[in-house]
Amino acid sequence: MTESDTVLTELSDGVLTLTLNRPEKLNAFNEAMHLALRAGVQRAHDDGAVRAVLLTGAGRGFSAGQDLGDRDPRRGEPPPDLGRTLDTFYNPTLRLIRSLAKPVVCAVNGVAAGAGANIALACDIVLAARSARFIQSFSKIGLVPDAGGSWHLVRLLGEARAKALTLMAEPLTAEKAAEWGLIWQAVEDAQLPARARAIAVSLAAGPTASLGMTKHLVQAAQSNDFDSHLDQERDCQQFAGRSADYAEGVLAFLEKRPPAFSGK
Q1: Of the candidates 58, 41, 32, 15, which has an alpha carbon nearest to the alpha carbon of residue 203?
Q2: Radius of gyration over alpha carbons of the chain, in Å?
Q3: What's the half-sphere exposure (Cβ side, CA atoms, 13 Å) at 23?
Q4: Please, which residues bridge with residue 106 across strands?
Q5: How far apart are the C-alpha atoms of 194 and 188, rounded to whole Å?
Q6: Cβ–Cβ under 8 Å, residues 169 and 117
Q7: DSSP assignment, residue 238?
Q8: Could you report the average pLDDT of every consecutive run of 10 residues in the chain (264 residues)?
Q9: pLDDT at 1 (0 to 100)
């Protein structure tokens, strides 16, 4: 395991685990944690040994969003340029997560508020402890949803629920989030680490290239028209059909044994 001040990283069984590590601040983001998380996701892009990512938080919460201690108006400083904050820190990391051609599993182990909730929603498979809460807390401090929140909420929940959650900033339980389709599963608190890791390890042992293309096809589906999406499926399937993993999958099926995918 390697450790920075704000994010723990560990590569094992093809899974790169990234643990937000400011538990005394409920893993609220400062500049150092932004940069450390981005470096971890960039590593997943660049390192062929990484075949899946598991993102979680240390301590009793996943992330409380932005560290507001860095925005204290009592300092008498000029108002912050939050657009620059998004362009410099949040949005590049979110784009890296969405564009990563490998699965990203998120284990929400407690409160996920503001941008912390929306970073979780950018991941591919999200599990949450039953005690976890998702809070679109922006309206409580005079802001609008960011870090992709308004984009994900509308697509996953529809306009009515997205408006209610963002305008009223009421906590959403993990069970309700799973029932509504905002996340994949709510699990018992004690089972969350093992369940999330088992999913990540299983995905890391899978056909990485085809999993990455599947992820991108699903993400593109709501913006593509049907004809262009058929073409995109064709192109991806053409590539997948020429892969070593497809040959191994067919051979394993014919030989009635589990496949041993190489990720190629």
Answers
A1: 15
A2: 19
A3: 9
A4: 55, 126
A5: 11
A6: no
A7: H
A8: 80 98 96 96 98 97 92 80 95 98 98 97 98 97 96 97 97 98 98 98 97 97 95 96 96 97 94
A9: 46
- Any bridge partners for residue 63, and if so which? 112
Q: Would you say the C-alpha torsion 98, 95, 34, 143 has a positive or negative sign?
A: negative
Q: Report residue 133 as tokens.
A: 């809460």
* Rounded distance between C-alpha atoms, residue 145 and residue 152, angstroms: 11
Output the pLDDT for position 154: 97
pLDDT of residue 76: 76
DSSP code of residue 206:
S
Q: What does pTM read for this prediction?
A: 0.94
Query: Token pair of 262, please?
Result: 């190489």
Q: Are 123 and 104 in contact (CB under 8 A)?
A: yes
From CA 189, how far away is CA 170, in angstroms rounded?
22
Kindly list the distances between the CA atom of residue 195 and the CA atoms of 6, 59, 119, 137, 258, in Å, as whole numbers in the listed order.
Answer: 24, 18, 20, 28, 21
Other Cβ atoms less than 10 A from the Cβ of 48: the count is: 9
Percent helix, strand, coil in the chain, to 5, is: 50, 15, 30
Helix intervals (H) in the chain:
31-46, 82-85, 91-99, 115-121, 149-157, 159-168, 174-180, 192-204, 208-220, 226-241, 244-254
In 3D space, the residue among 35, 31, 13, 106 whose CA is nearest the CA of residue 67 turns out to be 31
Which residue ranges make up each domain of the chain?
2-204, 208-254
Dmax over Cα atoms in the chain, in whole Å? Answer: 71
**What is the fold of 2-204?**
2-enoyl-CoA Hydratase; Chain A, domain 1 (3.90.226)
